[in-house]
């Protein structure tokens, strides 16, 4: 299996390590070189350029945001130069608008395209335990499926329209942000009546809210452990803004997303905020009600 990965942030690098551990030869490229060198030591092959990475049969990409996707793949001409028949699997959380644009462009260029955004933090990615949302033409999805199954606890097929996968991913990330916001407010209420955060979140996270999001983020909130980030707060703000853009495109109003955007903007004004996990949003919620 000839696989490459473009974009080696925390999630991209973790996925590469998972594939290497399973015996897959992975060619890697990143705009900054240090992580490439680290992964080469661990068994990956370096690509001199994104064009070289697109010589693989299956090209995975995990770029941080819409502008990075445009810079690396569109404005650079990389996609336009790619050989016909290659399958590009976009694992990133991007806007619904860009998802549609990418699907149309790949079809025009004769390239396979699978939108496959993921749920899970870096340790889950390295363990191959992600939930992967997969949408695209059936032949492209079939080609990508062996790799996606190595990355995933479960692959969730979502039909042929790639926009569907990205819309579901945005909805899921919005629910994560909303859960953190509600935990922060609940903690403030409990503490006002003498119930410490660890006690409150342990009880609720073990019973009524016994789900990974409440357990993982609840544990971080209880300990006020927000660094180093697994899911950076600034990326959370990016995603909330994508949610609001997607909602506006369909004439929808999302008041909770408006609140989350304002809270994350407030959080990110603080010193060192770029090194905070999304879980730190709970501190803004706590302060709001105290």
From TrEMBL:
Ranges where the 3-hydroxyisobutyrate dehydrogenase-like NAD-binding domain occurs: 165-282
Domain 6-phosphogluconate dehydrogenase NADP-binding: 3-156
Active site: 169
Protein name: Oxidoreductase
GO biological process: organic acid catabolic process
Residues spanning the membrane: none
Record key words, sorted: NAD, Oxidoreductase
Gene Ontology molecular function terms on file: NAD binding; NADP binding; oxidoreductase activity
Keyword check for NAD: yes
Record bears the keyword Oxidoreductase: yes
